[in-house]
Amino acid sequence: MSHLDPEVAALLAMGEQPSDADRRHLDACADCRAEVDSFGRAVLAGRASGAGEPLLTPPDRVWESIRSELSLSTPMLDDGGQDDADSAPASVGASRGSRSHLASRRRRVSRRPVFFVLAGAAVAVVAIVAGVWASGGIVPKADVISEARLDGLPGWSGAGGEALLERVDGHDRVVIDLAASVPDDGYREVWLLTADASDLVSLGTLDGSTGTFDVPDAVDLSRFTVVDISQEDVDGDPGHSGDSIVRGTLSPP
User: Fold this and answer.
1) Domains of the chain
2) Residue range 27-85, pLDDT digits in tens
C-alpha cells in the first residue's frame, strides 16, 4: 500500500483539509496517521514557544541545519520546473516502457503544486527552530555591564574568582566563578554589598563553583557595587555569617 506524500502530511498537520481519498487512507493507515501527528506536534511546539515574545533571528547554524535537512545545496526546481532526469534526452536504446515511465514521472512532478514543497519546508523550519529553542540554542544576547575580580579574604588563602554583571532583556544578573577550597559542611552564599559594607542583599546560594543569580529590580546597582561570597553554617540565621571567602568591586570592563 502506498503512503501519503510527506508534503501532503505536512499540510494536513498545519490544518489543511484532507481530500476524500487522503481521509480514507488515513483511516486505514496507522503509519501515515503517526506521521501527521508528528508534524502536528512540531507545529504546536513552534507556535507555543514564541507566543507573546518578540521574534529573534536564529543563528546561522539553524539555517545550515534546515538546508541540510531539506537537501537545499542545489535548487529544488530548474527553470522549466522539471528535474534533470526529465530534461535529459532518452538514450538510443531506451525502451518504450522507459519512456512511458519518464512521461508518467513528468506528469506527477508538474501536477505537484510548489506550495507542497514550501509547506514541507515550513514544517521543517518550525521543528528545527522549536528544537533549538527548547534546548537553549536560541537565547537573548547578554551584555556585560561590569565585572569584578574576586580576591580571597583572611583565612581563605589562595581563594579567588570572577563576577560578571550582565543585562539580558532589560534584567540584570550576576554570574559567579569561584575558585576556592571550601569545607564539605555548610554552604556558600552570594551577596551584593554597598562600598562601605553598611548594607547588603543576598542573591542566593552558590551550588558548586559557578552560578547565575538574578538581581532584584529594586536593587540600586549604583550603590550595591561589591560582590561577596560567604561561608555559611546551617543554623537558620539568614544574615551574613561574617566569614567572607572572596570579595571584589564591580567596575566597567
Assistant:
1) 6-134 (no CATH), 143-249 (2.60.40)
2) 888 888 888 888 877 777 666 555 555 556 667 777 777 777 777 764 444 444 444 44
With 0-12 / 13-18 / 19 or more C-beta atoms within 10 angstroms meaning exposed / middle / buried, residue 203 is: buried
In one-letter notation, the amino acid at residue 19 is: S
User: Contact at 8 Å (CB) between 110 and 102?
Assistant: no
Nearest 5°: the CA angle 139, 142, 144 is 165
Check if the beta carbon of residue 160 is closer than 8 Å to that of residue 179: yes
| Beta bridge partner(s), residue 229 | 190, 246
CB crowding 150-163: b at 16 or more within 10 Å, else e: bebbeebeebbbbb
